[in-house]
User: Fold this.
Amino acid sequence: MSILKRLYASAGPEIIHEVLQISDGLTTYYLTRGWDPLMVMLEDGGIVTCTPCGMDLAIPARNDDGTQDLKFALSNIDGIASAFIRSALAARRSMSLVYRVYTSDDLGAPAHAPNRFKIKSGTVTATQASITAGYFDLLDTGWPRNTYNLNKFPGLRYL
Assistant:
């Protein structure tokens, strides 16, 4: 039995630390739930300091219904979350999210493999930023994926 299964089932002396990495390609934020900064080691060996904030998460199930959404809310009292989201949306940059879980006795590696999401939408109010992210946006994926156009297949011009 893994340590996370034991902690979820019957608790224990360890504490579960949830870490969100939000990135828009230019800026990356590491956030954790709580009041104290948290230093953790990523899976690539880099050490980062996570900013504490008020956070609420709803993890999606991996299934085939097409709506595998992670919904989370961040405290927006200081305005950092809203400024980041508004600037990324205004510049039409795609935002990504990585969800990691650590235990207090081992901050040197995530307790399980990180979950990677693409941020789909969000709303910002004066007190919180509510954001929706998903594993893979199957419903909005174009089909067929490979289309024939002149950039990829210049010989089409002569047909």
